[in-house]
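Structure tokens
________________
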Amino acid sequence: MKKITFEDFARIMAYDVVENKNCLEFAFCVEGFTEYEFSWLGKMADKSNEKASYWYGLTEDGSQAYDYDSFEGFVDAKIFHNKSIKEIWELISFYDGFL
């Protein structure tokens, strides 16, 4: 497991996936929350409008999947028991090999 600062995370997520025709995808967990032991987040190009789309896939069954069209909306969304990823950043760890 790997921890990074929120500032480093923001720099990584600033990568231009549209221009570079690529995507970012990371596996992570939220310490102390069994439902978020193996979750995903990422950024990809939305082919319908050629803009970046930020997303979460928090649970394996797909019941907690979310998409956002801005980084601010993505990190401020209160989807972790009414808290945002920014608010619980100290609990976020990334799986080795995915960051």
Remarks:
- The CA atoms of residues 4 and 43 lie 18 Å apart.
